[in-house]
Structure formats: C-alpha cells, structure tokens
Design a protein that fits this description.
single chain, alpha+beta, six-stranded antiparallel beta sheet, 4 helices, 9 strands, lipoyl, GCV_H
C-alpha cells in the first residue's frame, strides 16, 4: 500500500496535502483498492462550502457507491474535472492524477485532527 509520508489522512480514507492556505484532497490507495474499479466520481462545484466530517461527493465502483467525507471545512476553489471522463485515475494514480478538490481552509486547526501516514497505516492494518 502506498501512503505518502508528507500527506495527512482522515479516518474516512481521504488524504490531504497542504498547499499554503489551501489543501488538495483525494482518496487513499487503501480506499481505492477496497472499492475496486471506480466507474464514476461525483464532486462538488467550485464555490461550494464543505464541512469537516460531512459528505462532499461520492465515488461509484463496480461493487458499491461510497460517500466522500470532507476531512476539513472550507470553500472549494478547484475541482478535478478530468475525473468526470477518467474515473479510472482514482485506481491508477490516487495521489497524483486523481486529486479531487482543492479547498481554501476555513479553520487551519482542523488539520490537527488528521492522522500521519504512520497512524493511518496502523489503522488500516488493524482492519
């Protein structure tokens, strides 16, 4: 399993990459491997507000539909439009091509609630 050390992780299997006052968000390698082949990704619009621990979209695989839960609160400033036509990027490249949204943080302290790569790996291996 690929768990980049520079990212933070949520219990709901989202990753967060800090980029100044913004964060880039996607789902983890572990999550995509559990879901199987992703066939559809539903994301919010630019300008939407998201709230930590609330759903902000969904991913549909051949097995199931899973809600995406916001790891932090803020305003969506960028959406990865490529996932609409290429949902398979989530399986092929969960950390590079398949980032989902960029959010301008409303509360930087929420990042403290996220796990390190080491803690996330512990959580997923205890399964």
């Amino acid at each position: 399993m690929n768990t980049p050390a520079e990212l933070r992780y949520s219990e709901e299997h989202e990753w967060v990459k800090e980029e100044g006052e913004k964060v880039r968000i996607g789902i983890t390698d572990f999550a995509q491997s559990e879901l199987g082949d992703i066939v559809f990704v539903e994301l919010p619009e630019v300008g939407d507000d998201i709230t930590a621990d609330e759903p902000f979209g969904s991913v549909e695989s051949v097995k199931t539909v899973s809600e995406l839960y916001a790891p932090v609160s803020g305003k969506v400033v960028e959406v990865n439009e490529e996932l609409e036509d290429n949902p398979e990027f989530v399986n092929e490249s969960p950390y590079e091509k398949a980032w989902m949204i960029v959010v301008e943080l409303s509360d930087r302290n929420e990042l403290e609630n996220l796990m390190s790569a080491e803690d996330y790996e512990k959580m997923t291996s205890e399964g």
